[in-house]
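User: I'm preparing a small set of examples for a lab meeting where we compare how different chains pack in three dimensions. I only have the primary sequence for this one, and I'd like the structure in token form so I can line it up with the others. Please keep the answer compact; I'll paste it straight into my notes.
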Amino acid sequence: MSSIVIASLSWHLPDGTPLFENLDLTFGPVRTGLVGRNGIGKTTLLRLIAGEIAPTAGKVTSPGSMGFLCQNPEQQAESTLADLFGVQEQLAILARAAAGAATEADLAKADWSLEQRLEMALTNTGLDRLQLDAPLGSLSGGQRTRAGLAALMFAAPDVLLLDEPTNHLDRAGREHVVDALRAWPGWVIVASHDRSLLGAMDAIVELTTLGARSDGGGYDAYRATKSAEIAPAES
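Assistant: Understood. Below is the structure token output for the 235-residue chain.
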């Protein structure tokens, strides 16, 4: 399967108010920007695709594995970058191997490319100056967000689902995220208001109170279409 297919999807708020009703939508295997006004349901849609919550009705059919980065991800302050990447055990094995103290079982399990791949993941998100034993509590909020993205990319899911990944980042941090997603070879769906990030997307899906509309021409094409629709109404 080469698409995420959303069929007759409905989801209601706890008080019964519908957020989505009979939504039909398809995401192709490209980088897609998800746009719409605040409160329209972008985060909820990402959570439905990720399988974090269940629809009231309808279904989401997704290929492969999902990696979801929410806004302001919760991270234990005392945990380290290595914990975030889930590589503590492997790093300990490599350390024993470097010290000549590795067992045969260690050597059989050792991931010899690990350190190079970790370095690449951190470099791609502008965190190459950080040490893997750095406590997450010592990082700025923007660094923690980028570390979460780096760890997600390191895990290499089939689909990246990102909710406002450039929120609260400075200009340099936003540029690192945009560059990392431009270089990412896989599938991305990113909810954002950041025009520079949306400009790196191949397609745009806009959520409205009427449902969803897709534009396969990227953000510039989407803006041109919106401007053309608004112009007659303003004349």
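A couple of notes for your slides: The two ends are 45 Å apart (CA to CA). The mean pLDDT is 91.

User: Perfect, thanks.
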